[in-house]
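Example S7 (structure tokens).
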């Protein structure tokens, strides 16, 4: 199955872009490193994995300050950004602008794993949180996974295009939206027909996204603070491999 997906998504030059490699991994339900290894065995070259230190994409001279603000939100205290988070940011804006913002503002992208990039192992520990909101019936009201598609719809103006970017079929993407709308008892998208039609977020959907992101950010900040106080300081003590990074 993996080989067939690689053949399907590689281009005529026998190359598989980094973005397509992630799509293949998602469709196959495997880690990205497995896709990199399989592509290497097939003689398929993975390209355009550039987010600051990889790839041959040119840098641009200008980018919005909003990109820097978003990078600060997803970076740790040492201005290190996980590759998967940087990729999501590149989908929201564009790759060149995000690369330039990373380069100009001293960010470092880490863990870009596709098998062909052998990054230095970092002897560090991280606190990761997952936040979602549910009702008394334990039905999902809002969460990062289901709502990510809403942001892509806002950018693309199309459910089908958003589904393609997330590696989903249209039916699955629309199912995510319907579940959220049903559980929230609110309309999240509007569909306009015609030549210039498309799918757009309602003001209520944008409000839900803004509130959820703020809540998620504050919970992560608190978790990081307590993690350092309880785990790094009390359990690990003044070990050099932790102190030099924190």
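Recovered sequence:
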């Amino acid at each position: 199955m993996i080989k067939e997906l690689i053949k399907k998504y590689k281009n005529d030059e026998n190359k598989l872009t980094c973005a397509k490699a992630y799509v293949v991994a998602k469709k196959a339900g495997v880690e990205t490193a497995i896709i990199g290894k399989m592509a290497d065995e097939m003689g398929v070259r993975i390209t355009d994995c550039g987010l600051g230190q990889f790839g041959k994409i040119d840098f641009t001279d200008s980018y919005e300050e909003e990109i820097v603000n978003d990078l600060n939100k997803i970076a740790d205290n040492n201005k290190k950004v996980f590759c998967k988070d940087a990729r999501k940011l590149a989908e929201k804006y564009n790759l060149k602008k995000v690369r330039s913002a990373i380069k100009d503002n001293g960010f470092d992208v880490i863990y870009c794993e596709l098998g062909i990039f052998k990054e230095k192992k970092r002897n560090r520990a991280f606190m990761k949180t997952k936040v979602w909101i549910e009702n008394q019936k334990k039905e999902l009201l809002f969460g990062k996974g289901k709502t990510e598609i809403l942001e892509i719809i806002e950018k693309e103006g199309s459910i089908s295009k958003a589904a393609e970017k997330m590696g989903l079929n249209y039916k699955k993407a629309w199912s995510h939206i319907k579940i959220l709308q049903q559980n929230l008892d609110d309309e999240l998208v509007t569909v306009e027909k015609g030549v210039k039609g498309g799918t757009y977020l309602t003001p209520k959907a944008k409000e839900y996204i803004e509130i959820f992101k703020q809540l998620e950010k504050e919970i992560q900040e608190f978790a990081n603070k307590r993690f350092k106080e309880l785990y790094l300081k009390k359990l690990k003590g003044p070990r050099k491999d932790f102190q030099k990074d924190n």
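Notes on this example. The longest strand covers residues 140-143.
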